[in-house]
């Protein structure tokens, strides 16, 4: 019985591996042809998440998109979003499984950007200007997002509209990020704040304002 179970298990695992390989989206697969650009060696793992608006999506060479990652442009499939690309992911990136990248105006992700799983990146947010209208029925607001090359986004982090991260930035797991941060920033928290930065003379060092706040709190100030 154990030999039969082992043989069946082996067949199932081999079949699933074959399905994953066949179901991946690559430049040579039919699904890859729908994208504005899917670079050489790029791959979207099977099973994918929700993907639509491919003609406005560019993915660079050798970028790996993990399982169940959703990539979308616009609010619904079939919308005309104009002549230019909206979502651009650079070369040699790795987007962790279960992540969502939702673009409506402009999201730029540089080269060699890595993310943990379940990261959410969007350039659109709901508004609540009218206190009498349900928030979901108010027209949302867009603001471009830019993530600099060489950055790392930790598991479960959220990148909100209007965020601009410089090169080689680190976003802590679970951080909710909005605003502009220079090259070599480490940001953490909800809302995210600059906690460390890099200087050629000082090396990596804690943010002065944060250190002052911690010191005052510890002393009862």
Automatic annotation (TrEMBL):
Pfam families reported for this sequence: Hexapep
GO annotations of cellular component type: cytosol
Xref: InterPro entries: Hexapep, Hexapeptide_acetyltransf, Trimer_LpxA-like_sf
Signal peptide (from-to): none
Domain of life per record: Bacteria
Keyword Transferase: yes
Swiss-Prot/TrEMBL keywords: Transferase
Gene3D superfamilies: Hexapeptide repeat proteins
Gene Ontology MF annotations: O-acyltransferase activity
CDD domains membership: LbH_MAT_like
Similarity comment: family membership: Belongs to the transferase hexapeptide repeat family.
Protein name (Swiss-Prot/TrEMBL): Acyltransferase
Species assigned in the record: Nonomuraea glycinis
């Amino acid at each position: 019985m154990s030999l039969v179970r082992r043989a069946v298990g082996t067949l199932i695992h081999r079949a699933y591996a074959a399905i994953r390989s066949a179901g991946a989206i690559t430049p040579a697969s039919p699904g890859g042809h729908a994208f504005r650009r899917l670079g050489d060696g790029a791959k979207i793992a099977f099973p994918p998440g929700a993907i639509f608006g491919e003609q406005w999506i560019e993915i660079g060479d050798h970028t790996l998109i993990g399982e169940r990652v959703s990539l979308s442009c616009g609010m619904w499939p079939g919308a005309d979003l104009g002549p230019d690309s909206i979502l651009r992911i650079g070369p040699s990136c790795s987007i962790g499984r279960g992540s969502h990248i939702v673009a409506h105006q402009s999201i730029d992700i540089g080269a060699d950007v890595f993310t943990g799983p379940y990261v959410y990146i969007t350039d659109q947010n709901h508004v609540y200007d009218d206190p009498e209208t349900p928030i979901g029925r108010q027209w949302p607001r867009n603001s471009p997002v830019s993530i600099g090359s060489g950055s790392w986004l930790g598991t479960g982090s959220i990148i909100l509209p209007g965020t601009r991260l410089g090169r080689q930035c680190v976003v802590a797991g679970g951080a909710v990020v909005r605003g502009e941060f220079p090259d070599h920033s480490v940001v953490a928290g909800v809302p995210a704040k600059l906690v460390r930065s890099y200087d050629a003379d000082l090396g990596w060092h804690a943010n002065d304002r944060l250190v002052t706040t911690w010191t005052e709190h510890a002393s009862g100030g």
